[in-house]
TrEMBL record:
InterPro entries: BRCT_dom (IPR001357), BRCT_dom_sf (IPR036420), Ribonucl_H (IPR013520), RNaseH-like_sf (IPR012337), RNaseH_sf (IPR036397), Stress/Tellurium_Resist (IPR051324), TerD (IPR003325)
Molecular function, one GO term: exonuclease activity
Keywords, ordered alphabetically: Exonuclease, Hydrolase, Nuclease
Region span, Disordered: 298-335
Gene3D superfamilies noted in UniProt: BRCT domain, Ribonuclease H-like superfamily/Ribonuclease H, sav2460 like domains
This protein's name: TerD family protein
Domain annotation BRCT: ranges: 221-302, 347-425
Transmembrane found in the keyword field: no
Species classification: Bacteria, Bacillati, Actinomycetota, Actinomycetes, Kitasatosporales
UniProt-listed CDD domains: DEDDh (cd06127), TerD_like (cd06974)
Similarity comment: Belongs to the CAPAB/TerDEXZ family.
Domain called Exonuclease: residue spans: 19-184
Entries under Pfam families matching the protein: BRCT, RNase_T, TerD
Length: 614
């Protein structure tokens, strides 16, 4: 299906009518709040795609400009530029009451949010649209979703990469083409609410406790570095001083009590506090303040956490910014065998196809997707340009997407087609052309594993579900040790704490039905053996209400997925482990899991040793 749009018309669907502020920033690094914006460009469009304003400037960040070989912005070029506080009012006026648009929008939005925080203000934007996320939904016939690749696909000339002014011009063409393609597919735009916030603070490095948790304080025993300590109630020494002295001794101070807490400091053990009730339930010992102060005088040395594996100099890849991505890793044998009633392992006639299943009960749809995967296809959860076949089960004829499917001329089948697709329709492998590119990602069934290449680039595991889902799904990640416990509460990444203090683990939200976890595997401490990626549903809804969740693994921003899996495992469950990234010798592997649980996120977090406040 060709969605080329060098002459695309602006969409006519009312849901696509917004005033837009297209943004691109060049920065001194990748950490918002720590690094600064060096160059900013904004292009404003009205609801019909007509340009209404334009602004661009270099900025003096007051710090080292970072990777000059990428953005070309030397200290000399930036020396006479204005500071952000000088242009903040003008930038605010251009963004106000408009939808912010950017490619990898969370990056640009977070940098702007921190720049506004530096001048004691906030980004006057209530919604944003990521063109990278939008094109993941569209699924254009491109080898990847990088800005330059999409520019070529949508007929936009790119003159100077990593130049904010040219990038935002290119972005305007990509937006036009993407909206036109999305309209043809009948997609809802992945607009993400981001109400103005004033809680963005400059980056302050946080040093997690450097020692492993040795367990509970024994009666008559001594404190050991790494012990988790909670304080409940009033203290004679100020709470701040008590915490500071404890941290200086190598203790891990927490704000709540769990089964992993070593001791609770409380002067009134009879007080009706949530911490003391939880301590009683978990059997956590209590000490009063005078006893605790005496224990602080002789804290025993603890076991330090593992350090990051250092790549030998000879291994360090030297790759110019324009070099092609490393080839996808090979897929080892799957651990979950293909059911023999479906198809022999050597006979996979649907390899390269994307199959969308409509209608049926949750169980019927799950079985249909499993059959499609067994024949070599990948199972889609949304209609996109990459979908090659549609299977309609009972009730699927009434699906709102059928009108678009008919207009697009997609191949439509009934459930019997999946019993033996080669007997009813001869399908050669999809040819790799500009208009019909096969899905080259490795398709993983539940329990299957794949090796992750060691290229020095962070890996991202993204989860997506059906666009029309009315339930809130939260993706989280736990970085656990060999004992399946988080070394510290900071090793739990979720919507309230979306980034590990050292930046090795991050959570990104790219749309209402897509969230992703990015892990810098080479920088993870050696004690981290596994990253558990899970999803949870708010309220009383279950995963049968949400339906299938598709996960993809990619190495880098905008690159094609290395692997994908569609998980139907959960029905009545409210939390589900989606995938695990785990050490295998000197390397890492990804496993598609799909294991659901009836309990909520708090119970799952406690299972991995996270302190959850009562």
């Amino acid at each position: 299906m060709a969605l080329l749009s060098s002459s695309s018309k602006w969409p006519t669907l009312p849901g696509y009518f917004h005033d837009w502020a297209l943004v691109d920033v060049e920065t001194s690094g990748l950490r918002p709040g720590r690094d600064r914006v060096l160059s900013l460009a904004i292009l404003t469009l009205d609801a019909h795609g007509r340009q209404t304003g334009e602004f661009s400037t270099l900025l003096n960040p007051g710090c080292d400009p970072g990777p000059v070989h990428i953005h070309g912005l030397t200290p000399a070029r930036l020396a006479g530029a204005p500071t952000f506080d000088e242009i903040a009012p003008q930038v605010g006026a251009l963004l106000s009451n408009r939808v912010l648009v950017a490619h990898n929008a969370q990056f640009d939005y977070d940098f702007l949010a921190h720049e506004f925080a530096h001048v004691r203000s906030w980004v006057p934007v209530s919604r944003r649209l990521c063109t990278l996320a939008l094109n993941r939904l569209v699924g254009p016939a491109t080898p990847d979703l990088k800005l330059g690749t999409l520019a070529a696909h949508y007929g936009v000339r790119q003159e100077k990469a990593h130049d904010a002014q040219d990038d935002v011009r290119v972005l305007s063409g990509i937006l036009r083409g993407s909206l036109s393609a999305a309209e043809r597919l009948g997609l809802s735009l992945p607009l993400l609410d981001c109400p103005p916030r004033q809680d963005y603070k400059p980056y302050v490095p946080k040093t997690p406790c450097a020692y492993r948790n040795p367990g509970r304080l024994e009666a008559g025993g001594r404190l050991v570095q790494g012990m988790k300590v909670a304080i409940s109630g009033d203290t004679q020494v100020s709470r701040e001083e008590l915490v500071a002295r404890s941290v200086a001794c190598g203790l891990n101070m927490t704000t709540s009590v769990s089964g992993q807490t070593s001791v609770v400091v409380a002067n009134d053990p009879t007080a009706a506090s949530g911490k003391l009730r939880r301590a009683a339930t978990e059997g956590v010992p209590l000490v009063d303040e005078p006893a605790y102060l005496r224990l602080l005088e002789s804290v025993q040395p603890g076991q330090t956490k593992g350090t990051v594996r250092q790549r030998p100099a000879a291994e360090t890849p030297v790759r110019p910014p324009t070099a092609p991505p490393a080839p996808a890793p090979s897929v080892p044998a799957q651990r979950t065998a293909v059911p023999p009633t479906y198809v022999a392992a050597a006979d996979r006639p649907l390899t390269g196809h994307r199959v969308l299943v409509l209608g049926g009960t949750h169980q019927e749809a799950a079985e249909a997707r499993a059959r499609a995967v067994a024949f070599g296809a990948s199972a889609a959860v949304n209609l996109s340009a990459s979908v090659s076949d549609v299977v309609v089960l009972s009730g699927g004829e009434a699906d709102r997407r059928m009108t678009r499917i008919t207009a697009l001329g997609l191949r439509v089948h009934d459930a019997d087609w999946l019993l033996a697709p080669t007997t009813t329709l001869t399908l050669a492998p999809v040819q790799s052309t500009a208009e019909n590119r096969p899905d080259l990602a490795a398709v993983l069934v539940r329990g299957a594993v794949i090796d992750l290449s060691d290229t020095g680039t962070a890996w991202t595991v993204a989860a997506a579900w059906r666009q029309q889902t009315a339930y809130e799904v939260d993706v989280v990640a736990f970085a656990v040790d060999a004992y399946e416990q988080v070394p510290g509460d900071e090793d739990f990444v979720f919507y309230g704490a979306p980034e590990h203090p050292d930046g090795t683990l991050r959570l990104a939200t790219d749309g209402p039905t897509e969230q992703a976890v990015t892990a810098d595997l080479e920088r993870l401490p050696l004690e981290i053996h596994r990253i558990v990626i899970a999803a949870a549903i708010d309220g009383a809804a279950t995963f049968s209400d949400v339906g299938a969740i598709e996960i993809t693994a990619t190495c880098g921003i905008g690159v094609a997925p290395t692997a994908r899996a569609t998980l139907d495992a959960a029905t009545t469950e409210r939390t589900m482990i989606l995938a695990e990234v785990y050490r295998r010798g000197e390397g890492w592997r990804l496993r598609a899991v799909g294991q659901g649980y009836d309990h909520g996120l708090a119970s799952l977090a406690r299972r991995y040793g996270v302190d959850i406040a009562e």
